[in-house]
């Protein structure tokens, strides 16, 4: 491909998206650039503080539990208070909690504040996704979600490299730097992002229509809850990249550096190929994409059972990373299509919950299977789970109209976003 063709492709990828999206994108990138704590938390607790690996695992679990707890609550806040207030509360709370964590010494205090950090940091996700759905046209949403996912991975790749250097100087500096960059995200939201929540319609009895979309509505939506269940299965597989894979490689005699080399392929491919992949998939059949991505995820990890060198491990990472690049924007777009406009926050919160619960279950599952049966059984189980998810998506999507967002959300055209900065 010529340089002119590359420039044209890049211009087409970023064109047509509203200014508010790019400020939200910038906030996401800055947030992930400062994501140092999740990278070096285990090292901080075991090497700097001298705690056991068991305690470090407990703190990580509490951090994840905080995310589970906040997923639903932040979704309700996103619908009731608005996207902008929820983002400001979440990011401000995250900045304060992360800074506080850097000054904690007592084991119980560290565990408690880690739980708060997990709650606060996860609370922004439903608001970000709901706001993005509000401000981006339906035909551009897959591209927008993909660009946002690209920003997340670009920021995380850079912060992961920087975390090691920062940790050599001062772990506390890492906590404070993350707190400062998260606070900067809140400033961007406050100054540049107007509220995007659709105006609330009032019926003949004077009741707000938003009241009809509660958590019960989400739970009774069988089609959407099926997507949440399938999302959990896919997330359970993808979590093995950071949970089961390092343990299995360690037991097979590979070093942490070997694991780092193999898993680095994931971040590199996403940064290098997410945008080109999006251009290929954004107007294709979502059903086929979700089926293919589930198969790639399941069998990508399944192939790990046959890996005997770092190079082969890296090749398996390539397979499931391709599935990840296809799945992330497609599935997020599907969630938006299935969400009533007035209940996007709650629906996004429930979707976020599926990933948060998977982050809790995956370590328990992988540890049990590896200890009891061996790593080969874990990779075989991943292939089975990926297949079940693929079959589930195939069956579910047969009943879903494929003519666009309006087919699922007939009220979308009637809902107008607020444009005030309050």
From TrEMBL:
Indicate the transmembrane segments per the record. Answer: 21-47, 53-73, 85-103, 109-128, 149-167, 173-191, 227-247, 259-277, 289-322, 350-370, 377-396
CDD domains xref list: MFS_MdtH_MDR_like
Membrane-related topology note = Multi-pass membrane protein
Q: Which residues form the Major facilitator superfamily (MFS) profile domain?
A: 20-398
Localization of this protein: Cell membrane
The keyword DNA damage belongs to this UniProt entry's keyword annotation: no
Main location as per UniProt: membrane
Please provide the record's keywords in A-Z order: Cell membrane, Membrane, Transmembrane, Transmembrane helix, Transport
Q: Which PROSITE patterns match?
A: MFS (PS50850)
Which Gene3D superfamilies does the protein's record reference?
MFS general substrate transporter like domains
Is Electron transport included in the keywords of this UniProt record?
Answer: no
Q: Which domain of life is it from?
A: Bacteria
Q: Which SUPFAM superfamilies match?
A: MFS general substrate transporter (SSF103473)
The name this protein goes by in its record:
MDR family MFS transporter
Its source organism is Streptomyces hokutonensis
């Amino acid at each position: 491909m010529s340089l002119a063709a590359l420039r044209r492709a890049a211009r087409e990828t970023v064109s047509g998206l509203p200014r508010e999206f790019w400020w939200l994108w910038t906030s996401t990138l800055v947030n992930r650039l400062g994501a140092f704590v999740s990278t070096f938390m285990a090292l901080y607790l075991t090497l700097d503080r001298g705690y056991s690996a068991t305690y470090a695992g407990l703190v990580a679990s509490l951090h994840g539990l905080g995310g589970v707890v906040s997923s639903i609550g932040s979704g309700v806040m996103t619908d009731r208070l608005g996207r902008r207030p929820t983002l400001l509360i979440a990011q401000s709370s995250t900045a304060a909690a992360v800074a506080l964590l850097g000054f904690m010494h007592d084991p119980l205090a560290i565990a408690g504040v880690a739980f708060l950090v997990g709650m606060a940091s996860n609370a922004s996700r439903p608001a970000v996704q709901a706001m993005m759905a509000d401000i981006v046209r339906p035909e551009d949403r897959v591209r927008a979600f993909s660009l946002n996912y690209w920003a997340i991975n670009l920021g995380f790749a850079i912060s992961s490299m920087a975390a090691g250097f920062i940790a050599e100087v001062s772990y506390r500096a890492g906590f404070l730097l993350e707190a400062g960059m998260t606070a900067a995200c809140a400033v961007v939201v406050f100054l540049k992002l107007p509220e995007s929540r659709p105006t609330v319609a009032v019926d003949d009895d004077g009741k707000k229509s938003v009241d009809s979309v509660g958590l019960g509505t989400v739970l009774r939506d069988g089609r959407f809850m099926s997507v949440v269940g399938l999302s959990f299965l896919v997330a359970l597989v993808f979590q093995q990249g950071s949970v089961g894979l390092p343990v299995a490689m360690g037991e097979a005699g590979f070093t942490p550096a070997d694991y780092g080399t193999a898993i680095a392929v994931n971040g590199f491919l996403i940064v290098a190929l997410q945008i080109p992949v999006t251009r290929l998939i954004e107007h294709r059949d979502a059903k086929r994409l979700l089926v293919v991505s589930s198969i790639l995820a399941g069998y990508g990890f399944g192939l790990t059972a046959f890996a005997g060198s770092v190079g082969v491990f890296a090749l398996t990472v390539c397979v499931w990373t391709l599935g990840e690049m296809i799945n992330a924007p497609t599935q997020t777009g599907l969630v938006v299509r299935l969400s009533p406009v007035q209940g996007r926050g709650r629906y996004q919160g429930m979707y976020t919950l599926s990933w948060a619960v998977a982050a809790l279950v995956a370590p328990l599952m992988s540890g049990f299977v590896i200890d009891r049966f061996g790593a080969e059984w874990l990779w075989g189980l991943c292939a089975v789970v990926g297949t079940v998810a693929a079959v589930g998506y195939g069956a579910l999507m047969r009943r879903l109209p494929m003519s666009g967002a309006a087919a699922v959300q007939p009220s979308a055209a009637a809902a107008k976003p607020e444009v005030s900065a309050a």
